[in-house]
Task: structure prediction
Amino acid sequence: MLKRVKPTRVSDLVFEQLRDLIFKGRLKPGDQLMTERELTESLGVSRPTVREAINRLVALGLLEHRQGQGTFVNPTAFSSDRNPFSAIVKDQEVSLIDLLEVRLGLECNAVMMAANRATDEDILDLERSIEEITAEIERGGLGQEPDVAFHMGIAYATKNPAHIRIMKNFYELLFFGISTNLQHLYSEPANLKKVTEQHRKILDCIRTHDPQAAYEAMREHITFVLDFFRHI
Result:
């Protein structure tokens, strides 16, 4: 009935925090990381601990050192050339509809896990993303990056590392490759209102830890987007 407890090194915790900020889009490609001294003070750990965590992220290609400038989020970390899904799209006749159908299966399952496992911190992240989507749309934007952050927040709330890895690559391919299509979707104010309402409904279901309702809310959201592109 008991499982062995694995000791966790402090550098692992620092590594996970920084990696998650990159995956969630809080640290974006090209952003400069705080200095070792600033990270040491903010995290309350030693400089060797911070250095070890950063070196691991550099080895993974998520960060890069620039001589005389500092450490930056690697702009090519999730480029199409390095995305394992990009070959599928390039080599085969894969349409946006095909990608959305895959997303329907992945995200409906994910949101059920998220509804069961989401912490207060996860819910705060999702709330922040919705606020950023709304603010960006009000400024005339598409809300594209905070939209990715919202769905990645759901992926993180699943607490399933395999799912998180898969979805990070999938979202990068799907969201950042279809700006023109998003402009079609958001060209009508009625669509903007519906999508925002759908996001809030998904969040409410996660907040109340209702997996079945969360499933239905996500299915409604992605089906709405899917039906829109099927008819244009």
The chain is about 70% helix and 5% strand. Residues 10-73 form a domain with the Arc Repressor Mutant, subunit A fold (CATH 1.10.10.10). The first helix runs from residue 10 to 23. The chain has two domains: 10-73, 86-230.
